[in-house]
Design a protein that fits this description.
two-stranded antiparallel ribbon
């Protein structure tokens, strides 16, 4: 939907064609990355999470760009966590999963430029445990009980949404 809005919808002509074409490429890359994950899960006869329903609070292109960057950074952190988890048990997964990190980082850089920010140069990416990534997604974007898993509709494959952190004092 974001790409459609950037090319033919209400946000067209906000960015040069080279940027909107890149967003289209990012969409295609995300589908390839999803296939890498589902192929790996299928190989081990693990249940696949069906398509969930999402609710993204996107009123304008700035909201789209903010959410896109958040999701890309969550994906990078999750990939690092998964790679660290499977390094000994399933080393053949390292190559396919690690190969997506470069494109995810370039995606984040492109979104930084869309925000009129410098591309964020960092010595390392943050590893984010899967439990926290899925909890964030469940709390912010996934419509409750909309993810079919193993023929039932519920959470994301056994991950539980952690309640939002409440800070009681500074």
């Amino acid at each position: 939907n974001g790409h459609n809005n950037l090319t033919t919808g209400g946000w067209s002509n906000l960015y040069p064609e080279s940027i909107t074409d890149t967003i289209g490429s990012m969409t295609a890359q995300a589908l390839v990355h999803r296939s890498t994950s589902t192929d790996s899960l299928s190989h081990y006869q693990k249940p696949l999470v069906g398509m969930c329903s999402y609710n993204f609070a996107i009123a304008n292109v700035d909201d789209f760009v903010d959410i896109a960057l958040t999701l890309i950074l969550l994906e990078i952190g999750l990939l690092l966590d998964v790679i660290g988890t499977v390094v000994l048990s399933d080393p053949w997964l390292i190559g396919p999963l690690a190969s997506t990190l470069g494109s995810k980082s370039r995606m984040a850089g492109m979104v930084n430029m869309m925000q009129d920010h410098m591309v964020a140069a960092a010595p390392r990416e943050a590893m984010i445990p899967a439990d926290l990534v899925y909890s964030y997604a469940m709390n912010h974007y996934v419509v409750g009980n909309s993810c079919p898993v193993g023929g039932t509709t519920g959470d994301l494959g056994g991950y539980t949404a952690i309640p939002p952190l409440t800070v009681t004092s500074a």
